[in-house]
Amino acid sequence: MPDSLSDAVIDIEHVCPRCHARLALPDLQAALPCPSCGRQFRAVQGVISCLIDEPVNPWQSFFEGRSQADDRDTSAANDYRTALQQRYMIEAFHRACGPVANEARLLDAGCGNGLFWAALFGKPNVIGVDYSLGMCLLARARGMRVYHADVSALPFDDGQFDLIYSSEILQCVTMPSPLMAEMARVCRPGGRIVVSTLNRNSILRRAMRQVRRILPDSAAPADTAAIQRSAAELAAIGRGCSLSVRSVWWVHFPLPWLRRTASEHYPLEPMASNMVIEFVKATPPSPNAP
Predict the structure, then answer these.
(1) 207: Cβ–Cβ under 8 A, 6 or more apart, which residues?
(2) For the chain, what is the domain count?
(3) Which entry of 5, 60, 164, 210 is 20 to 30 Å from 224 by CA?
């Protein structure tokens, strides 16, 4: 299946993620230096590697290890506790993303092994990005066009994607603002960005944090932990990137409840385990506007 993938399916302009010089990455067959800063790019089994710095953070090594594990082709490799948890998150993204035209340009930011994409869209107009090369190769094997890159330093020119979605990667970064700003950069004006993360105000998650203080999770990176945030915090970060909240979908795992609000305010927020926030990128005013 990977051999049938074509860059012509979705036409994208590429830039160096370090200096933003234009690049001809679709034609990459061997190492390619950036004409401006000299950064080298390469192709690995059909995956273009555009990572600027390694390691990005301890989670990168964690997911690289998961991509080599016996269960690498399951939801567990994407750090979901159960397949049911991933299914609930996919349903929330189905609701938040809504129907999308076949000609729309979509970006899966933090695509993992491609299982999420396959269940959510599974179409060739979606491009995947992940900082684990092993995960990229797994997603590629599923038929996804994918780049080995950091979501905080994307190899794409400004304003190219109609929809960017990102499931559960915000808890793996200490500074979410650069990541959100980078997604906003490559999103077209009027386009949407849909992100999910752990709800810091969840009663369930507070209880789990207490349990993990007593019984640490040996599977997670030893020198870091999943960072939990509130919907209000992410909404404020979004506003700093010219993004406004259109809707928030509240996931109540392990219960099958999914609730929608038009803002980050929700009376039952302590009952929600995760939230999926739909942002819209502002459209610049017309130069001829009064």
Answers:
(1) none
(2) 1
(3) 164
Strand intervals (E) in 104-186: 106-109, 126-130, 145-148, 161-167
Cβ count near 228 (within 10 Å): 19
Query: Do residues 276 and 93 touch, judged by C-beta distance below 8 A?
Result: yes
Domain with residue 266: its CATH number is 3.40.50.150
117-166: pLDDT as tens digits? 999 999 999 999 999 999 999 999 999 999 999 999 999 999 999 999 99
pLDDT digit string, tens, across residues 35-76: 899 888 888 888 999 998 888 888 999 999 999 999 999 999
Confirm whether 288 is domain-assigned: no
75 occurs within a structural domain: yes
Give me the domain span that covers residue 68.
2-281
Q: How far is Cα 72 from Cα 87, in angstroms, rounded to an integer?
A: 17
Rounded Cα distance, 211 and 204, in Å: 11
